[in-house]
Amino acid sequence: MLHHFHSDGLRLAYRDEPAADGHNMPVLLVHGFASSIEVNWNFPGWFKTYGDAGYRVIAIENRGHGASEKPTEPAAYHTDRMAGDALALLDHLGIERAFLQGYSMGARISAFVALRAPERLRGLALGGLGIHLVDGVGLPLGIAEALERPDPEAITDPTQKMFRTFADRNRQDLAALAACIRGSRQALTPDEAGRITTPAIVCVGTNDPIAGAPEPLVALMPAAEAFAIEGRDHNLAVGDRAHRQAVLGFFERIRAG
Fold it and tell me: How far is CA 216 from the centre of its chain?
């Protein structure tokens, strides 16, 4: 069931699912570009994985997506503003510290949260984003133009076509998504990545050129480890069973320690 809260003047949606039994430590999930809570986290099994392990599972619907408000000005999508949304949700729920997981754009947002407010995090999982957190500025700008094309069948670039098809399938607001791509093009410097001291796992599919390799990013971070999601591309890596087991195991080690 979706609930709503307000952040930065916007009405945003979220899910909050306490575990039926167990420790109920909170984990906050931040989805990727053109995705949603259901597509990124529920359908691929993350809610069940965490719920069965006793976690309280919280997921935010990013601004511009799903049931959240959809500004069409690129400046509204600066990554630090979206990181502020994640922190505002924790404040809204009265949660002092949580595990944090993001995928793709959600991983970029999560890294900004970790840099800005490390005291709020128990552990961090970045999926679908490796060294491009530092040496890249997000998805290619051509995707914005592809989202705005009235004739999607004429799109020939495979990456552009993939994201346009994904957005259409998820019934997203194309104008808001185009603004999101144009506005959320912030990277961390190597020094900033090195200041992320939260224990972190960086998970990237071995067939995912969109993310960048995880190992060079992990080398910059003082408390991080890499996990290769074998044989998976950017889309299929999200709900891969080994991916879920790796992140859950990582969080469980932190919780037990």
Answer: 20
Q: Tell me the mean pLDDT in the region 29-47.
A: 97
Q: Which helix (H) or strand (E) holds 59?
A: strand 56-61
- 154 Cβ contact list (under 8 Å, min separation 6): none
Q: How far apart are CA 154 and CA 236, in angstroms?
A: 25
Helix axes of 79-92 and 105-116: crossing angle, nearest 10 degrees: 70
Contacts of residue 138, defined as CB under 8 A and 6 or more positions apart, other chains included, come to: 33, 105, 108, 181, 184, 185, 186
Mean pLDDT to the nearest integer, 95-117: 98
Q: And the tokens for 231?
A: 């044989």
Query: Could you give the angle at which helices 158-169 and 174-183 cross, rounded to 10 degrees?
Result: 130
Other beta carbons within 10 angstroms of residue 116's beta carbon come to 13
According to DSSP, the β-strands at 200-205 and 224-229 are parallel
What is the rounded CA–CA span in Å between residue 97 and residue 228?
Answer: 27
> CB–CB of 98/120 below 8 Å?
yes
123-153 residue pLDDT tens? 999 999 999 999 987 778 799 999 999 999 9
Residue 137 is predicted with a pLDDT of 74
Tell me how far the alpha carbon of residue 25 is from its chain's centroid: 19
CA–CA distance from 247 to each of 111, 152, 244, 251 (Å)?
Answer: 16, 36, 5, 6
